[in-house]
Amino acid sequence: MKILKTVKEVKEEVKSWKEQGLQIGLVPTMGWLHEGHLSLIKNARENNDRVAVSIFVNPMQFGPDEDFDSYPRDLERDAKLCEEAGVDLIFAPQPEEMYPNGFCSYVDMNGLTGGLCGKSRPIHFRGVQTVVNKLFNIVTPDNAYFGEKDTQQLAVIKRMVLDLNMNVKICGCPIIREEDGLAKSSRNSYLSPEERALAPIINKAMTAGKEMIIKGERDSAKVIKAISDIILSVGVTKIDYVSIVDSLTLEPVEKIESDILCACAVYMGTSARLIDNFSLEIKG
Ligand code: AMP
Q: What are the φ and ψ backbone dihedral angles of 66, each rounded to 5 degrees?
């Protein structure tokens, strides 16, 4: 496995893969890898000749008051996990390599990014789109793997690839959870033992909301209130949002009449903002 830090080196490596006609899978990450990331890597490994993992805490997708500085980083640890998972190449650039002096181009969109996480993180998706675009141009993958845990991100990337006629297939992978239901996340490492003990309430509340809809509840407000009440009942004080949106447009729906996405973001303590979601097909 190669660990490369420059765009030039990666382009050279990828060129030799292309010359051999090899199929390339890319897994973009911010590192501090866990089983969620590893499930994407496994999927990539099974379906491609070569697997590249990018490890880059992308400053452009963090707001000024967000956790860019404190985000956990450990390339050595991540490299070991990648090696064990059969990764061929890690691309781990420094910010200056991705955004050299004079950098001033962005990729952005008008739809899909205004609600859900985009509301409290207004520049986040522009940063995600820009860096993913750059990674696609550098690695030129045939397939790229993203988790349904960041379901709005997955929708944004799929839309971007469609709108801009990009030659890459976007593969969504299911949410990997801890035994108690908490969605695995690098940010779970911010939780104190007390917060960690409370955190599974997010998935419990979402599961209760899902059950309500499955049993026939069609009023979004009632489901959202039930989910919020359960989360707040354990002493969590700040919910960013609980929303039910159309699964294609990501616009809020009042009545649940077609396929929906229910998503939430919850602050646990002072530093951790955790997200979760479920999708439901609604048969007319
Ligand atoms: P991150 O390093 O948090 O930017 O995540 C990199 C990729 O891993 C993204 O596509 C995430 O959606 C995906 N991912 C993170 N956590 C999970 C999880 N628990 N289950 C599935 N995919 C995940």
A: -95, -175
